[in-house]
Amino acid sequence: MALDIAVLVSVGRHPASARNRRAVLDARALELALNVPGANIHLIHAGDADEPALREYLGMGVERLSVLGVPAHADVLPVLVAHLKALRPALVLCGAAAEQGAGSGELPYRLAAALGMPIVPAVAGFELHGGRAQLAQALPRGRRRGVEAALPVLLSVDRAAPEPRQSAYARAQRGQIERIAVPAAPLWQPPGEEQPARKRPKRLKLISGSGAERMRAAQGAAASAGKGQLLVQPEPAAAAQAIYDYLLSEGILRG
After folding, report:
1. What is the C-alpha separation between 223 and 37, in angstroms, rounded?
2. What is the pLDDT of residues 133-158, one digit of tens each?
3. Taking a C-beta distance cutoff of 8 angstroms, is the pair 56, 172 a contact?
4. Quick one: which of 18, 75, 149, 180 could link to 188 by a disulfide (CB 3.0–4.6 Å)?
5. Which pLDDT tens digit goes with each residue over 14-26?
6. Measured at the alpha carbon of residue 30, what is the angle toward residues 105 and 8, in degrees to the nearest 5?
7. Are residues 22 and 105 in the same domain?
8. Are 154 and 46 within one domain?
9. What is the mean pLDDT of residues 95-113?
10. CA-based angle 191:192:193, to the nearest 5?
11. Which domain holds residue 242?
12. CB–CB of 157/123 below 8 Å?
């Protein structure tokens, strides 16, 4: 019997051009699913079925994409929960966070809690053996940790997962997009309140070096502010008088 794997995908955004594209982490999640022999992959998106970027997922080799018709700024959680409960997949894969919108990374955890599934975050790879998943979990500094979980389980995929394959244009155009009507979803209300970002204080430039170098830097800063005096090869008495006058003006010495 083929293993049912649900892969949740979203619309990404290119960081330079701001053009819509397939999301990097979701594409890695789909790549992991495509590497499971004989798996029955259910590609699912909650949003606009007319978004052209969705076909980039079909170009990776999946024949069908199911789109749950949810308007913009709606809460996709109840819609995804109802669809996945009816589907009953053994594995649910998704990226750790979206590239657009809030991108908080909360959805995998909220979804796992609503489905009553365990969740393993930061997954870089997995193998299936006898109803259990042996997972490689990404840790800081390139380390990996082995984790074992019983099916069904929800896996949140990390950037350490394998690079996704290129999307073929012909496959993308041949793939089918199935529009699924769903009940009206409530608008998603982010926690807290929005306010303008505070202006960050400027970082002070740290001056390192010997005492003489720091003094020269201080004198240069004072000169740039219009308080300095430039002396070119002065007589010793004139140089001493200029230094004395400077120390008096700065309050270091008292006359």
Report:
1. 73
2. 999 999 988 899 999 999 999 999 99
3. yes
4. 75
5. 989 989 999 999 9
6. 45
7. yes
8. yes
9. 90
10. 125
11. 211-249
12. yes
